[in-house]
């Protein structure tokens, strides 16, 4: 089999699996006449998506807003923290334990406290999501900034490179693959953080997100709407992951395979 | 006329107490192609790094063009170093890698561009200047690394086993190109190698070193007027020189062992 056919098959096969699963799911629901409030068929979910379209889209917008803002904050703040910590061994030794404490404490356990402490709901949601998304940015950037080829470093030093030249032309490019991998992981965690925070906050109204829609659908036994909201969360995650992978490939593709 | 590099009574003792160089005296004249050869650990790399001022000597005097190191880098006193590994930046295209030393010196782009192109043409990489290092073979990466050294138009070229990691065919071809480049341009070169054939093929003077402590054991002179081509490699003269040098190397190795017996507990 030539490589192009193999690549085409790699695309077609998962699509076929998906279509078959949907077909069997639909057929089983109809055949055994499973009530919609127990387990909806794909067609029921599509119908619900359509019927609740405006409301779900609004919720999607909220969740996406929290996710993207926390991702942005995580990347900016996380990079800044890593750049400061990498300056001195002692600095890193003193603060790293706290970064790790932050990481190992489950966000769902901290979220209620944050919701209580922070008045503005959207701010509290962003804070929760940032708390978990920032860790991979910090740790990957730290590793990346430390992973400079010693041969190249010797070469730069021999040519009397300045500190700024070392940073811009050696350290930052060397760190880029690890950094981008960290940002990709952070994008997934920001979504997780946003959804968890919404569950805990349980706020409706203008800042109601997809997680709130899932909660509400549960209370109202509107299972198709629950699936529809879940579907939108999954699609958001996939689009984020795809987008990040694309950016990574554009930035590093030709010279290095992205770190996985 | 002062030598390109002069070393007088140079010693190097590392912090670990290793006597890497016992007193070494060496004067390198303009246009010479010098090879450093000797058993592993005899201090070839250390000597080259002292010449490059990467390591300061523990004792003795080193002079570049009769002056101290601060003058190295000025016009007519340029030095370039080629490491055993190509040490290219994987994120930069070949042309950007080669331009690096000029960028670090803040040479304006308009001046740098023709120099970069010329250096790449010299090593036969004119056709891959937009490639990334990952797209090059081992031999091509080494050529790019040499182009990066040539782009500064060095007056003294230092190379530490540059072709050690390459297969024999590639190494022979690069040796031929290196010889042409250095002899045609009258470039003063110091070349560390493990290969006796490479040393004979390239050099006008081979310095044989012995270990424990690292020192110069002897010298072997080869007529610089000889054309370094495949015919030379196949000639009887070449075979003779290899045999003579081989004998000297054997003696140097025995001297090493005798010395080692003397100091080992
Ligand atoms: N940075 C260093 N610190 C301490 N000892 C060193 C250092 N560099 C080299 N040495 C020691 O100095 C001696 C000479 O080393 P050097 O690298 O110059 O040998 P070499 O002739 O280049 O060997 P090879 O052919 O294996 O490259 C060795 O005993 C080595 O262990
Ligand atoms: Mg060596």
For the structure shown, list the relevant keywords.
heterodimer, A: 260 residues, mainly alpha, MetI-like fold, 2 domains, 10 helices, B: 265 residues, alpha/beta, Rossmann fold, six-stranded mixed β-sheet, three-stranded antiparallel β-sheet, globular, disordered C terminus, binds adenosine-5'-triphosphate, binds magnesium ion, Nitrate ABC transporter ATPase (chain B), P-loop_NTPase (chain B), AAA+_ATPase (chain B), nucleotide-binding (chain B)
Overview of this protein structure:
The complex is a heterodimer of chains A (260) and B (265). The relative contact order of chain A is 0.13. Chain A is built from ten helices and no strands. With 260 residues, chain A is mostly helical. The radius of gyration of chain A is 23 Å and the shape is flat. Helices cover 82% and strands 0% of the residues of chain A. Chain A has two domains: 1-33; 40-252, MetI-like fold, CATH 1.10.3720. With 265 residues, chain B is of the alpha/beta class. In chain B, 39% of the residues lie in helices and 22% in strands. Chain B contains eight helices and nine strands. Chain B has helices at residues 44-51, 94-104, 109-122, 138-150, 168-184, 196-202, 230-234, 236-263, and strands at 5-13, 19-28, 33-37, 59-64, 79-82, 156-160, 188-192, 205-210, 215-221. In chain B, strands 5-6-7-3-8-9 form a six-stranded mixed beta sheet, sandwiched between helices. In chain B, strand 6 (156-160), helix 5 and strand 7 form a beta-alpha-beta unit. In chain B, helix 2 (94-104) packs across helix 3, helix 2 (94-104) packs parallel to helix 4 (138-150) and helix 6 crosses helix 8. The longest helix of chain B is centred in the last third of the chain and has 28 residues, at 236-263. Chains A and B meet through helix 7 and helix 8 of A and helix 2 of B. The site of adenosine-5'-triphosphate has 12 residues of chain B, from helix 1. Magnesium ion (MG) binds next to helix 1 of chain B. Chain A: It is found in: Cell membrane. Chain A: The chain crosses the membrane at residues 6-25, 32-51, 63-86, 98-118, 124-148, 175-197, 226-247. Chain A: This is ABC transporter ATP-binding protein. Chain A: GO terms for molecular function: ATP binding. Chain A: Keywords: ATP-binding, Cell membrane, Membrane, Nucleotide-binding, Transmembrane, Transmembrane helix, Transport.
């Amino acid at each position: 089999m030539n490589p192009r056919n193999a690549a085409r098959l790699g695309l077609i096969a998962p699509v076929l699996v998906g279509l078959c699963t949907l077909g069997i799911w639909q057929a089983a629901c109809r055949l055994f006449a499973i009530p919609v409030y127990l387990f909806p068929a794909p067609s029921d979910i599509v119908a619900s998506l359509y019927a609740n379209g405006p409301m779900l889209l609004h919720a999607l917008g909220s969740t996406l807003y929290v996710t993207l803002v926390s991702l942005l904050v995580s990347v900016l703040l996380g990079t800044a923290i890593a750049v400061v910590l990498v300056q001195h061994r002692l600095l890193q030794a003193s603060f790293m334990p706290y970064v790790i404490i932050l990481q190992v404490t489950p966000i769902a356990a901290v979220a209620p406290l944050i919701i209580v402490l922070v008045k503005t709901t959207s701010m509290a949601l962003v804070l929760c999501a940032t708390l978990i998304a920032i860790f991979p940015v910090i740790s990957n950037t730290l590793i990346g900034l430390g992973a400079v080829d010693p041969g190249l470093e010797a070469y730069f030093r021999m040519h009397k490179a300045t500190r700024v030249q070392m940073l811009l032309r050696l350290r930052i490019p060397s760190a880029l693959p690890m950094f981008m991998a960290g940002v990709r992981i952070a994008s997934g965690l920001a979504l997780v953080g946003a959804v968890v925070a919404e569950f805990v906050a349980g706020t409706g109204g203008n800042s109601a997100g997809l997680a709130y829609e899932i909660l509400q659908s549960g209370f109202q036994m509107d299972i198709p709407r629950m699936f529809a909201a879940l579907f939108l969360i999954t699609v958001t995650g996939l689009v984020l992951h795809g987008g990040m992978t694309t950016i990574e490939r554009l930035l590093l593709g030709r010279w290095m395979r992205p770190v996985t | 006329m002062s030598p390109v590099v002069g070393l007088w009574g140079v010693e190097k003792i590392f912090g670990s107490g290793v006597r890497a160089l016992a007193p070494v005296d060496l004067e390198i004249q303009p246009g010479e192609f010098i090879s450093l050869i000797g058993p592993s650990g005899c201090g070839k790399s250390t000597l080259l790094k002292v010449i490059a001022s990467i390591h300061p000597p523990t004792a003795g005097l080193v002079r570049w063009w009769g002056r101290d190191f601060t003058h190295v880098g000025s016009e007519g006193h340029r030095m370039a170093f080629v490491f055993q590994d190509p040490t290219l930046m994987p994120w930069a295209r070949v042309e950007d890698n080669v331009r690096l030393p000029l960028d670090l010196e803040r040479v304006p782009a308009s001046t740098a561009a023709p120099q970069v192109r010329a250096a790449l043409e010299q090593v036969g990489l004119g056709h891959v200047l937009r490639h990334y290092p990952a797209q090059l073979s081992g031999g091509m990466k080494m050529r790019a690394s040499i182009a990066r050294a040539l782009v500064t138009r060095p007056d003294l070229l230092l190379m530490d086993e540059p072709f050690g990691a390459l297969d024999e065919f590639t190494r022979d071809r690069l040796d031929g190109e290196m010889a042409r480049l250095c002899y045609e341009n009258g470039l003063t070169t110091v070349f560390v190698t493990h290969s006796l054939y490479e040393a004979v093929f390239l050099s006008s003077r081979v310095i044989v070193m012995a270990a424990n402590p690292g020192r110069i054991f002897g010298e072997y002179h080869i007529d610089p007027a000889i054309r370094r081509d495949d015919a030379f490699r196949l000639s009887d003269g070449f075979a003779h020189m290899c045999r003579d040098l081989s004998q000297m190397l054997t003696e140097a190795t025995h001297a090493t062992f005798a010395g080692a017996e003397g100091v080992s507990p």
